[in-house]
Specification:
Arc Repressor Mutant, subunit A; DNA-binding; transcription; mainly alpha; transcription regulation; 2 domains; Helix-turn-helix domain-containing protein
């Protein structure tokens, strides 16, 4: 029982750390969110903080996983209706514009994760695959029903949305006046069927 209790406390502490870390990064920005800053926020030493994660890099990976978990509340991954998916996806993008530090963390770590030995490598591969799968399945269903264009393969559409959303984050970090959500939404608009296809689907 003692072991089970200790394990539960450890899990709860990890969750507290990740929740507070997101708050610190959102408030202080990526540069200001040092391990010491995060440790202070949860009443731990730096060594005590890293005890729960193993390394600074792994801590940041888990912070991004926590961000994804929070975003799931804004974007239901089980929703297969394109309109609902569009609304949820854009809602996440708009929220990202309110937390530049988290966006910077994601973008910086993405570059480092191209190294297969980096702790974040698998995270980015898994995340990318899940996003593409979601878009591919939803787009393919909508294409089959004739509600959106089938001029582009569904899997390619999924990759385009992933590239657009991740790429817009980089553009926005360089120029905060860029409207990430509006630009990605334009890509959704391009999925509208060609006139002849729309007429055939409705007849």
């Amino acid at each position: 029982m003692a072991k089970r209790g200790s394990y539960a406390k450890g899990v709860a502490k990890r969750e507290e750390i990740l929740t507070r870390a997101l708050e610190v990064i959102a408030r202080e920005g990526f540069r200001g969110a040092s391990v010491r800053e995060i440790a202070d926020a949860v009443g731990l030493s730096q060594a005590g903080l890293l005890h729960y994660f193993g390394s600074k890099e792994q801590l940041f990976v888990e912070i991004l996983r926590k961000r994804d978990e929070v975003d799931a509340g804004r974007f239901d991954p089980n929703e297969v209706d394109l309109t609902s998916m569009r609304e949820g996806f854009l809602r996440v993008i708009r929220h990202n514009s309110e937390v530049p530090g988290v966006v910077e963390l994601f973008s910086r770590l993405a570059v480092e994760a191209s190294d297969t030995a980096h702790p974040a490598h698998e995270y980015y591969l898994e995340r990318s695959a899940l996003i593409r799968q979601l878009f591919t399945e939803t787009v393919r269903k909508e294409q089959s029903a004739g509600r959106i264009t089938d001029r582009v393969d569904a899997e390619v559409v999924g990759r385009l949305f992933q590239a657009a959303s991740d790429g817009m984050q980089l553009q926005w970090l360089l120029d905060p006046d860029v409207d990430m959500a509006a630009t990605v939404d334009a890509l959704f608009q391009l999925l509208a069927p060609a006139p002849a296809q729309a007429e055939a689907a409705s007849s």
